[in-house]
Design brief:
- The chain is an alpha/beta fold.
- The protein is about 40% helix and about 15% strand.
- The protein has helices at about 70-80, 80-95, 105-115, 120-130, 145-150, 165-180, 195-210, 220-235, 240-250, 255-270, 310-320, 345-355, 365-375, and strands at about 40-45, 55-60, 65, 155-160, 185, 215-220, 285, 300-305, 325-340, 360-365, 385.
- It has a 5-stranded mixed sheet. A 4-stranded parallel sheet has the order 4-5-6-7, covered by helices on one side.
- The model is unreliable at about 1-5, about 5-40, about 40-60, about 145-150 and about 290-295 (pLDDT under 50).
Length: about 400
């Protein structure tokens, strides 16, 4: 990939060693004739389960225990590994052909919906009708906002918290997609400040290479990433590559004054001339994460999309919204996924509201979202209500 003159001449640029990733497991819709044994997806707690309410809403019990395979699928999905989560649920269904517990099936229906897999959903629905001798759930995809629809139309590369074996093949695929795209996006919302200089250099080369083209470049979560980089700079923890990455991001965000200040510190620290400032051309900076739409009203606080590392403002808004209330209902019906990176922030928000005497209820979330809430302990402080699918 071509480099910008942003790099000073003669700079060493050792390539990071990144192992190849294994091919993802292909998910297969279960067929009834291939089943041999039975086991429950949910290991029942000592007390008998409560029957569903007349309005079709179930409240998860605090003592709910999941089969290990189901718990694994929930955690895979929370870590943005939807394909592996689907495969794990499919294996569980195939391995337990006589089980009348439909939890794994409903989780798989939810996953197929949020990932837009209509054909596997329909195949699973036919198998469900045979297994349970009842009507299967119907397809009801989550509505996308305009921003989400636009994001789906062009290649996007998401930098994770750390350099992983999957990054090399993912980046190769991303570059291939970029060749024919007019608009591309880089998402920094999930990454912390790289401890590995190779990862920082990979980010720097990827970003500078895209900026050198005539393509429209969207930076998702870039401003929050700059805040994290500046905090590490103040603590003296930046490598030369992360210094250059910070300078490039400041340049692309048109923060000329801050760029000059950081460039001066860079020159003093490394005793070399810093990169020069060039105003950005076709670069847009956007926040990422869940959007709050529509506006909160009454006791109901709606969220939507992905709740991830860039969602701090969502939880700040939740606390402010709940401050004058005794009770708050958090509407998750339009949330596709809760990323594991935001679990700590979510728990802090829930615990602070509970300690302030608020009654909290999470409503409308899909099965994977609700079970993640239960696994991380949200059920100790809030009710988790799940709509029974029909």
């Amino acid at each position: 990939m071509a480099m910008l003159p942003f790099f000073r001449k003669g700079q060493a640029s050792a390539k990071p060693a990144i192992p190849h990733a294994a091919e993802p497991t292909k998910t297969v819709a279960p067929r009834p004739e291939a089943r041999h044994s039975a086991a429950p997806a949910v290991i029942a707690p000592p007390q008998p389960p409560k029957p569903p309410a007349n309005n079709g809403i179930q409240v998860y019990e605090t003592g709910l225990q999941l089969a290990p395979e189901i718990e694994e699928a929930v955690m895979l999905y929370a870590n943005d590994r939807a394909g592996e989560a689907c495969a794990a649920l499919n294996r569980f269904i195939l391995d337990h052909p006589d089980s009348k517990d439909s939890l794994a099936w409903h989780l798989l229906f939810d996953l197929y919906e949020v990932t837009g897999q209509r054909r596997p959903f329909e195949d699973l629905a036919m198998d469900y009708a045979v297994r349970f001798e009842s009507s299967p759930p119907t397809w009801r995809p989550i509505r996308q906002s305009g921003a989400e629809k636009n994001a789906a139309r062009h290649p996007t590369f998401v930098f994770g918290p750390n350099l992983s074996p999957q990054d090399k093949p993912r980046l190769a695929h991303f570059r291939q997609e970029c060749e024919t795209a007019d608009t591309v996006a880089l998402d920094f919302s999930k990454t912390s400040v790289p401890d590995d200089d190779a990862y920082a250099l990979l980010m720097l080369k990827t970003l500078s290479g895209l900026v050198a083209t005539d393509k429209q470049v969207r930076l998702l979560g870039g401003e929050a990433f700059v805040v994290r980089l500046n905090a590490s700079r103040a603590a003296g923890r930046l490598t030369e590559s992360t210094w250059l990455l910070l300078l490039l991001l400041l340049q692309l965000q048109a923060k000329g004054d801050e760029f000059d200040q950081v460039a001066l510190e860079y020159a003093v620290h490394f005793e070399i001339s810093p990169p020069s400032y060039n105003p950005p051309k076709q670069v847009s900076n956007e926040a990422t994460g869940a959007n709050i739409e529509p506006a909160p009203a009454g006791e109901r606080f709606p969220m939507r999309g992905l709740l991830g590392a860039g969602s701090a403002s969502v939880f700040e808004s939740l606390r402010a919204f709940a401050a004058p209330l005794k009770r708050v209902e958090i509407d998750l019906s339009q949330v596709t996924r809760i990323d594991f990176a935001v679990v700590g922030l979510l728990m802090d928000s829930v615990m602070s509201l509970a300690q302030a005497g608020k009654q909290i209820a999470f409503e409308g979330g899909n099965g994977m979202v609700n079970l993640l809430l239960q696994l991380i302990g949200v059920g100790q402080f809030a009710a988790i209500r799940h709509e029974v699918r029909k």
